[in-house]
Amino acid sequence: MPTYTALTTLSGKHAAEALGEDLERLTPEPTGIGTFEIEDGSGLWEVGAYFDGAPDEAGLAVLAAMHDAKPFVVSELPDVDWVAKVRRELVPVEAGRFFVYGSHDADKVPSNSVPLLIEASMAFGTGHHGTTQGCLRALDKLAAEGMTATRVLDLGCGTAVLAMGAAHVWPDATILASDIDEVAVEVAEANLAANGLAGRVACIEAEGLDNPDIAGKAPFDLIFANILKGPLIALAPAITDALAPGGCVILSGILNEQADEVIEVYSVAGNSLVERSEIGEWTTTVLRKPV
C-alpha cells in the first residue's frame, strides 16, 4: 500500500499545533502528524501528515483555508525499505576518538576508538548530522585538554549518543539525559542498553531545565544542548544558572548564520567563548562559565 504525505506551512507555533489537532479528525485518518519550526527566522512552521492511502484533498484544502495556511502539497512516497536504504548509505562516522556505527558495520570498529552503536533506524542522532559530529568533536577536545566532569547533562538528548560519549570519557560521572519527547527517551534507554551502558545514564522526559530531577543534579560541569536556535536562546539564562563555575556548555543545532546571535546571548549571560567550529551549514560552539 503506498504512503502519502501532505505538507503545508503557516505562521506561529499555536496555529501550527491547532492545525495538527484538526488533522487528527480527518477521514481517512493520518498515521502520523508532525509540526516543526522552520529555523530561518521567518516565524513559519511546517505541518505534515502521513497517510496509508490517498488523503482527502478537499478536506485538506478546507483545513488549510480555516487555519490560514498555504495549500497542502500531497505526494506519494516510493515503496522503499528505508532502513535498508539507510544502512547502505550511512557509513560509520569518526569524530575524534568516537566511532559511531550501526550493527551492520560492527566489523569496521577500530580497536583504538570509543565505539557508539546507533542503529540505522534511529535516523536523527546517528552521528552523521553535522551538529552531532560537532558536539562529539568538542567533547573529544575538552577531554583531551584534561577536562574532568563529574556531572553532565545531555539536554534534548535524542538518541543519547552525546551522553554515551560522556559516559565513556568519564566512567564515574553522574550523567543525565533529557528530552521533551517520550519516544526519544525510550530510544535513548534502548541505545544505552545496546552499548552496555544501562544504568550509567539516567533518562527522563522533561521540557527545558525546569524539572526536579535536573535541578537535583545541578550544577553541571558540562551541558550538551544540541537543539535549535529558538530554544537555545530562550534557555540561555537557565543553562548558565545550571552550570558549575568553570563549567562548559556545548551548543549546536545552529545554522552558521545564526551562530553570532546565539553566542552573543550566552556571552551576555556571563559565558565566554572557548571555540566555534563549522561542519557544512552547522555551527557548534563551546562556552565556559566564569569560575
Mean pLDDT: 90
List the helices and strands in order: EHEEHEHEEEHEHEHEHEHHEHEE
- Portion of residues in beta strands equals 25-35%
Span between N and C termini?
60 Å
Strand order of the largest sheet: 10-9-8-11-12-14-13
Please state the CA-atom Rg, rounded to the nearest Å: 20 Å
- Measured as a percent range, the helix fraction is 25-40%
Question: Number of helix segments?
Answer: 10
State the total count of DSSP E strands: 14
Any idea what the shape is?
Answer: globular
Which descriptors would you attach to this protein?
four-stranded antiparallel β-sheet, single chain, alpha/beta, 10 helices, 31% strand, 14 strands, 291 residues, seven-stranded mixed β-sheet
